[in-house]
Amino acid sequence: MTSLLRSLLDDDATGFAVLHRRGTDWLDVLAGDVLDVDRLADVPLDGGTVLALVPFRQVRERGFPAHDDGAPLRCLLVRDRERVPLADALALLPAAVPVQPEGFDIDDATYADRVRTVVEEEIGRGEGANFVLRRDFVARADGAAPGRTVLGWLRALLEHEQGAYWTFAVRTPGLAAAGATPERHVSVAGGVARMNPISGTFRHGAQHPTDAELLAFLADTKESEELFMVVDEEMKMMSAVCPDGGRILGPYLAQMSRLTHTEYVLEGRTDLDVREVLRLTMFAPTVTGSPMGNACAVIARHETTPRGYYSGVLALLEPDGTTRPDGTPGYEVDAPILIRTAYLDDTGRVTVPVGATLVRHSSPAGEVAETHAKAAGVLTAIGAVARVPAGTRAPVLADQPGVAAALASRNDRLAAFWLRPQAVRPDPALAGRTALVVDAEDQFTTMLAHQLRHLGLDARVLPWQEVPDDPAADLLVLGPGPGDARRLDEPRVARLHALLARRLAAGDPLLAVCLSHQVLALQAGLPVAPLPAPRQGVRLEVDVFGERPAIGFYNTFAAHHAGPGRTPLLGLEVAADDAGVVHALRGPGVASVQGHLESVLSSDGLPTLRRLVGHALAGRAR
Question: CATH code at 539?
Fold first, then answer.
């Protein structure tokens, strides 16, 4: 049946979407009415199917900054649909219209300078672990109606791209787009939420890569650390939407026509409204950075134009036949990230936004090349760049010798806690205690609270602005965050100093993590200074009071202790390395750690957390 698809070929007034989802041999054709809403909670879920286009500016719902271009949160309220076999659709869809390339809106040299600035000034001063910087390839497509144009692009993408999670075309008033996105952001079906962080890019173009080249990519420290960092960031989101946390599956290869990525799948159970799941996971760190709040601030500082729909999501919300406790219909959602997508406006201007993930050891030239490679898959398919000759597609790279073992070995560095279902196993010495975790603008606190609950504590999280002066909790956990602990003129940092000082004065149990560990070190009379090189996304074995756990670190600054003995003030015991970098502090009722025991990189994180929490709570009357 192709009547609906056929009717759309010359109808540029009806809103429509045509979708191909990985693993299927058909296209879903959807048509209906268009409704723009203000917030995700306003997306109408009254029993019908809705396709929502969520722009990047919507991240302001989470309180994060974004350039505002007015891009609407647009809903296609589906009233007509059909399923068309892929072969029939390819025979019916039009050929792609000619596209005239104009080049990137930001030239290579300027983009390289921006990469250098972000690495040196943002990562270098502790604003975060990784950031995604965008630029747009610009072209023109004149002559055909936008709806017919994007349907032609859809055909080209189906014929010339491979490995996409979704391949799609969308047309609504003033907005036409077609893309082949490799990455699911989030889905919920049967009460199971899944996220699919993809990072690390192997550029092979039209050539067949050698086994040695592929294995070298899999062994590359930058590429693996880049993936681990985004897994950490998405596990924060999973811990926010799944009461039992989430677990990690993989890693896998995501192979496309001109490049291949490494990926994990994260999953956990949730009973949240799917719109709330979308809101709490805006947006993927693979297209923004981490921590999320500061990533959005960095994007606003270094990208001079709004993002439109780039790095937002295309969310298909469908009734699942259940009824929620409030009597409303239950829904499932499948939401890929809007990347590798070409946008066409009504003047014939084409834009293909792409970005590179910048980490501490990024090279400007390498990140420039990555943006070219990411744009190439879409551009070659729609004819803006010479297409890959027939017969030159790479073999299935995941089947090449040594690949499975190389991928599996990555998990040797990860915490087993996050690789398996996490049943609560209370520690009798900790069970029943309460913990208040202070969120200092890094959602690692959601993972930290989840681990504390696993140990048997009743843990909750509050933003730093909402924490009372004297919180009524057995344990106050001052959490991690971006920035410099010496900046007392910064309200967030000043509040951490005040909370910590009051807790110490009261003699009540306290655990301080990362940035807050540095706050404790300053109050204990130790200097805090930048490290020679940032430790963002680094896994190290360090001394923590006689044991050497493997811990993940995300810090640019560190406390320093010149020699043996306790801290000049407070008399705290110090765990430091041979260079004097302080990894942990402890004293009566107080403990701290520079690393992130909750990180997926901390293979010894949970037992170390148990030990430090137990120390802080020792002697506290129930």
Answer: 3.40.50.880
Give the residues across from 35 on adjacent strands: 75
In a domain, 281, yes or no: yes
Complete DSSP assignment for 383-414: TSSPPPPTT-PPP-GGGSTTHHHHHHHGGGGS
Q: Are residues 475 and 352 both part of a single domain?
A: no
Count Cβ atoms below 10 Å from residue 180 Cβ, excluding itself. Answer: 29
3-class DSSP state of 554: strand
Spatial separation of the C-alpha atoms in residues 155 and 90, rounded to whole Å: 6
Query: Which element (helix H / strand E) includes 608?
Result: helix 605-617
Same domain for 65 and 102: yes
Q: Looking at the annotation, which residues are catalytic?
A: 514, 596, 598
d(Cα 514, Cα 508) in Å, to the nearest integer?
Answer: 20
* pLDDT tens readout for residues 277-289: 999 999 999 999 9
CA-to-CA separations, 234 to 147, 175, 465, 599, in angstroms, rounded: 35, 29, 24, 11
Burial of 70 (0-12, 13-18, 19+ CB in 10 A): exposed
- In whole angstroms, give the CA distance from residue 503 to residue 368: 48
Contacts of 20 (CB under 8 A, 6+ apart): 26, 27, 28, 86, 154, 158, 164, 166, 167, 168
User: DSSP letter string over 269-333?
Assistant: E--S-HHHHHHHT-S-TTSSEESHHHHHHHHHHH--S--TTTTSEEEEEEEEEEE-TTSPEEEEE
For 1, other C-beta atoms within 10 Å of its C-beta total 11
Question: Which residues lie below 8 Å from residue 13, measured CB to CB, with a gap of 6+?
Answer: none
Give per-residue pLDDT as tens, 448-499: 999 999 999 999 999 999 999 999 999 999 999 999 999 999 999 999 999 9
Angle, helices 605-617/444-454, rounded to nearest 10 degrees: 70
